[in-house]
Amino acid sequence: MEFKIMTREDLDKIAELYVGAFNGAPWYDKWTVETAKKRLGQMIGCEDSLGLIAYDNNKVVGMALGNKEYYYDAVHFHFKELCVDTAIKGKGIGSKLVDEMVRRVKADGVTKIILWTLRCSEMLGFYEKQNFKVSDELIIMRRSL
User: Of the candidates 112, 22, 46, 29, which has an alpha carbon nearest to the alpha carbon of residue 74?
Assistant: First the structure.
């Protein structure tokens, strides 16, 4: 497995991966390639963003994306997106992407990683295996308009 830094030139290939991953279980979203490119392009354009693309035999098999955010006493990394080609899901690619992202952001001074994910056993189980814990201090709230 090889990891490359994501750039805007990668948007077409990662948008297709993203649509394939998130339009299926457990999310059942309704992404198009165009809306995915818009979302991912915004994230890539964010100051201090870091995106990684996982390749296996020159084929895109996964991606991870987030950004650093400065706090008064630390640097946090907001892990925004992680997905794997659904045809090969469950083969450790997601774990390798998380490990590589953790290695890179830790070397860059990050002291905490924060992420949002779907509250379901599949996602919580995956991230708990990656040493993430459900926060006792923080919740996500929303208001529809």
Answer: 112
Query: Cβ distance 38 to 31 under 8 Å?
Result: no
Instruction: Report how far residue 103's alpha carbon sits from residue 64's, in angstroms, rounded to the nearest whole number.
Output: 13
CB 103 within 8 A of CB 91: no
Considering the entire predicted model, what is its pTM? 0.90
Structure confidence at residue 113 as a pLDDT band (50, 70, 90) = very high
Joined tokens for residue 101: 């992202």
**Residue linked to tokens 């002291």:** 111
Three-class SS state of 10: helix
Greatest extent of the chain over all pairs of C-alpha atoms, in Å: 46
Looking at residue 95, its amino acid is: S
38: tokens are 């818009």
